[in-house]
TrEMBL record:
It comes from the Bacteria. Pfam families: CarbopepD_reg_2, DUF5686. InterPro entries: CarboxyPept-like_regulatory, DUF5686. Gene3D superfamilies: Carboxypeptidase-like, regulatory domain. This is CarboxypepD_reg-like domain-containing protein.
Length: 847
């Protein structure tokens, strides 16, 4: 929830297009409006006369046109309006607002014909034939078509609270915050006032090589609003925004926007999902530019709608694009989305991206109420192609931040910004500093942090998580817990975590203490990690329960189905060394001493029917992990991997040491897994995990693989949701787990239902394994008997020739937060206390 918490506080917008002028450049900017209605006009074609330098107005009717040479005239063209030709001042920066008059002659030619609506078809459609030519020529028009390329990039990201009414602005609680508000000027997001709260700038040089394929990014300067780290995680917030606002490459088949994959209008399969129409031809420049409008065949799917501009020559290059999403799209919380791409022709006659902007407006209501808006604009300059790039440029990491990048002064930014920035935008830096010094703001942030993050910050130490302070189970009864962890305010190299818990029914104390030391003078959560951790834990655990992203004593997970009386009292002594490398390969060397005592309905009986009160093992382990191209939501005291198309490989070897610190058994355990997300374009995406394990050696059932079960009512992605705790054990197994999200592909096509913005989910899990005779107490002496119920019926089994299988179909995005699955168990239905069907729910925040 922490990256989401950062996003909910800071997703925002504010953007004004201008540029610095110097030298002999002619710079013209302004706004184009309808002369009659005074409304702004988007997508108006703007060109310097007799040149190929042109652009289109954005969604607010604003334009910016820059020529390195003196220019005398500028033209404006728009379907349904009279063309406008205006004089400009050569080699100067100027503002020129235009009022375009509707062309009555064009309007007189519009004829409305009644009758049967013509069905849209791809066959013999000139617009589709044109888009297929664009698709066929994608590779030659991409930047990757050059042997080498380099360019400079300036990025500006702005976020604001938007659609703020005067009534809200003038509330008593905002009496001391009036200096933050700005006038809003955007027909896209509506409202009157903005409350800007975040700004970030970055200047970088990029280098690319085709053969061999290499890339390098050198960040020269970066600057952003810095919030008080006690309340706001600046790194985590930056990571979340980077995930939501990625680079827009129209030549890719899929474009990632707001953490979703959208099919590009020039993707290989675009004609099957989009409708295309030729809506204009611009003949005032060479080559001619054709305007293609496109719209989704189904307005609920993850598709764009808008216009692209392509050259009417043998290259069919994209020269510009302006698109957004349909109001009926199955996308949560997004009121409006607008993407603008501008391309400039280079000295080789091809078109290179000169500017891109992505604007999004978020809110609970579709149109009314306060929202968050944000825009990322990126300007590209100084393109150089097919030049010799020395190998030294690509040495080291693919992305490098210069040591003084965050220390650049205002003079540096004034001289090096590739795009201008308004005075109001620059005020955000000082305004936020002033805001954070207000006592009322500090009090508010403490409350918000506790509600969303679950921790109360006390400076060097923070208390939490609060949802674990109270829980209950059949053995401990009411369980009370209190604890917390240190923060970087105490030390960046030392990190401590602890808690103390007490069970009212079993009258036993539980506790945990860990200490971690960073060996690379960085936070233990910062990539790449290198640390040593020692810990001791005395607590309870349900055999076979493995939870994702939640504590086992979370209050909501206290509610469980079926018989749930098995528990272990555990003493864990652990020592771990973790080392990560820049290529995302890592290893973990560990030592663990584990003493376990059964409790409740669980007991350890040897072959002589004698109770065994305590089982002790000592083991060493080596874990290798490789996650190429992995990215994180990187925070101050957390790190969450971002699911992506790249696989994650894990392999772990564990050796039991008999006679070492009381260890009772020798054994070897080899475990391996592969995790990968598969994007299937309009059919959504699948998360797939393949896992396998083999245990060598004679060991009792508590040391076997106890397969992950779930007896809560929450849907667990990595557990078997209709398997009972400790129902199956194995000494060898393989498994596959598939969880697929269709993103509403079918629901979007159903009348009425599509208005609910529901999404279909499907899962399938299969587990195939077994128990060799040497580890089966039915065939071997010296082992513990497998657990039974009080009535004597078998409770724990070994898998046979039939795999354990379960699947589910579900509906996600209920109330934009809830997923509910109907789960079906397919095998081993005759085991006692088994449920063949079940309903499970999961809360998930997603766009």
């Amino acid at each position: 929830m922490k990256p989401i918490y950062s996003f909910l506080l800071f997703v925002t917008l504010c953007f004004i297009l201008q540029v610095n002028a110097f030298g002999q450049r002619t710079v013209v900017s302004g706004t184009v409006r309808d002369a009659v209605t005074k409304e702004t006009l988007p997508n108006v074609s703007v060109f310097f006369k007799d040149t190929q330098i042109g652009t289109q107005t954005d969604v607010n009717g604003k334009y910016l046109l820059v020529s390195p040479n003196p220019q005398n005239e500028i033209s404006f063209n728009y379907v349904g309006y009279r063309s406008v030709l205006k004089n400009t001042v050569p080699s100067a920066t100027q503002e020129l607002d235009i009022a375009m008059v509707p062309d009555s002659r064009v309007l007189d030619e519009v004829v409305v014909v009644g009758g049967k609506k013509t069905k849209y078809r791809n066959k013999d459609n000139p617009a589709v034939e044109l888009i297929r030519q664009v698709i066929a020529h994608k590779d030659e028009n991409r930047i990757k078509s050059y042997n080498t390329a380099s360019f400079r990039q300036y990025e500006k990201m702005l976020f604001s609270l938007s659609n703020v009414s005067d009534k809200f602005k003038n509330k008593r609680m905002f009496k001391n915050y009036q200096f933050l508000f700005q006038e809003q000027d955007s027909t896209l997001i509506g409202g009157k006032n903005l409350l800007p709260i975040y700004i970030r700038e970055q200047l970088a040089d990029h280098y690319l090589s085709k053969d061999p394929e290499k890339n390098k990014t050198i960040i020269i300067g970066e600057k952003q609003v810095q919030f008080d780290s006690r309340y706001i995680d600046n790194k985590g917030m930056k990571s979340y925004f980077d995930r939501m606002y990625q680079d827009i490459d129209i030549y890719k088949n899929n474009i990632s926007v707001i953490s979703n994959e959208f099919l590009s209008p020039i993707a290989d399969g675009a004609p099957n999902f989009y409708k295309f129409f030729i809506t204009d031809t611009i003949k005032t420049q060479k080559p001619e530019i054709i305007e293609l409008s496109f719209t989704p065949r189904n307005t609920g799917d993850m598709l764009f709608e808008g216009k692209i501009y392509v050259t009417n020559d043998r290259h069919y290059a994209v020269t510009g694009a302006s698109f957004g999403v349909n109001k009926n799209i199955n996308l949560n919380f997004v009121r409006a989305l607008k993407i603008d791409l501008n391309f400039e022709q280079n000295d080789k006659g091809k078109y290179s991206l000169s500017k891109s902007s992505l604007l999004a407006d978020f809110g609970i209501g579709k149109t009314k109420g306060i929202g968050f808006t944000g825009e990322r604009s990126v300007t590209f300059k100084n393109y150089r192609y097919d030049t010799v790039l020395p190998d030294t440029i690509f040495q080291g990491k693919s992305s490098v931040v210069l040591a003084d990048a965050a220390k650049k002064d205002d003079k540096f930014w004034e001289n090096n910004r590739l795009d201008t920035i308004s005075k109001n935008q620059l005020k955000i830096y000082s305004n936020i500093d002033t805001l954070q010094n207000l006592p009322s703001f500090k009090r508010t942030m403490k409350i918000v942090t506790l509600l969303f993050a679950g921790y109360q910050n006390l400076g060097p130490y923070e208390i939490g998580p609060v949802n674990t302070f109270y829980s209950f189970n059949n053995v401990e009864g009411l369980r009370l817990r209190f604890g917390g962890r240190t923060t970087p305010e105490l030390s960046k190299r030392y990190y401590f975590e602890n808690y103390l818990a007490y069970g009212i029914k079993d009258e036993k104390w539980k506790f945990f203490l860990s200490g971690t030391y960073s060996l690379n003078n960085k936070s233990i959560y910062a990539f790449p990690q290198q640390y040593v951790r020692a810990s001791f834990q005395r607590d309870t655990k349900i055999p076979g329960q493995e939870l994702q992203f939640v504590q086992e004593d979370n209050f909501l997970l206290s509610f469980k189905r079926g018989v749930n009386d098995m528990l272990l009292y555990n003493d864990f002594y652990r020592l771990d060394y973790v080392k990560e490398f820049e290529n995302h390969f890592s290893y973990n060397l560990g030592f663990k001493k584990w003493s376990q005592t059964p409790a409740g309905g669980l007991s350890y009986l040897n072959t002589n029917n004698q109770l065994v009160n305590r089982l002790t093992t000592s083991e060493v382990s080596v874990q290798l992990r490789y996650a190429p191209n992995e990215k994180f939501y990187q925070g101050k005291i957390y790190r969450v991997p971002i699911a992506d198309r790249y696989p994650v490989f894990n392999i772990r070897y564990t050796a039991g040491l008999k006679g070492v610190l009381g260890g009772e058994y020798n054994y070897h355990n080899l475990l391996g897994s592969i995790d990968k997300r598969f994007y299937l374009s309009q059919l959504g995406y699948s998360d797939v995990t393949v896992e396998g394990s083999y245990i060598a050696g004679k060991v009792p059932f508590p040391l076997l693989d106890i397969h992950r079960a779930n007896q809560t009512y929450a849907y667990q992605l990595n557990s078997y949701n209709l398997m009972n705790f400790l129902e199956f054990v194995s000494d060898h197994y393989v498994s596959i787990n598939i969880d697929h999200n269709f993103n509403g592909f079918f629901f979007n096509k159903m009348p009425l239902i599509k208005k609910l913005k529901l999404r279909e989910v499907f899962s399938f899990k299969a587990l195939y394994g077994g128990l060799r005779n040497e580890n089966n107490p039915n065939f071997q002496t010296g082992l513990y008997q497998l657990p039974v119920y009080e009535n004597g019926s078998q409770r724990t089994y070994a898998l046979g020739n039939t795999p354990y299988m379960e699947g589910s179909i579900g509906v996600a995005n209920i109330f934009k937060l809830l997923r509910v699955d109907l789960v079906k168990r397919f095998s081993y239905l005759n085991n006692p206390e088994v449920s063949e069907w079940g309903i499970r729910a999961r809360v998930k925040f997603d766009f």
